[in-house]
Structures are given as C-alpha cells and as structure tokens.
Amino acid sequence: MQAIWNDVVIAESNDTVEVDGNPYFPFDSIKEEYFKKTEFTSVCGWKGKANYYSLDVNGKINKDCAWYYAEPNDAASKIKGMIAFWNGVKVQ
Predict the structure, then answer these.
(1) How confident is the model at residue 11 (pLDDT cuts 50, 70, 90)?
(2) What's the CATH number where 6 sits?
(3) What's the Cα-to-Cα distance from 69 to each of 6, 9, 20, 28, 30, rounded to whole Å?
C-alpha cells in the first residue's frame, strides 16, 4: 500500500494493518523528511491517546493529517509503532 499527498509517496508498505477502516503503516515505512510532530492529541475510547504529525511536502502543509498511538490500550496493541492518515492523504 502507498500513502500519497501532494503527488508524493509519503509511506509505502506491504505490512499495513487495518483498524476501524483505516490502514496503519509501520513507522519504518514513512518518508520521515515530510513529517513534523505537532502538539495536537485526541482520545479514542478503545485505542487510547493519539498523537499527530503534519506533512510538509514541496512547501504545502497538511496539518495534523497523520496519527499514531505511542502507548495504545491493550485492545489496540497491534497498531503500536504504526501510523494512519486522513485529511486528503490518499491511501491505495
């Protein structure tokens, strides 16, 4: 699978995991140069606290469009060390 934003592949992996309809990519599959950590967080009742990244690709910013669970709840342990996308990031 590939995650694409602003016509650039930002992540690519054959080892994605789907949870709640979202493919999660292993951290080692992302192109780190495009990712900037943000202060934004959210909470999912069964997965836990999510942290976010924004993307900076060729001068365009996509704010808080990638999330991950640094310490997911036990029920979501299979997505520890993985990242998912939304807000215009195309996954195919």
Answers:
(1) very high
(2) 2.170.150.40
(3) 25, 22, 14, 15, 15
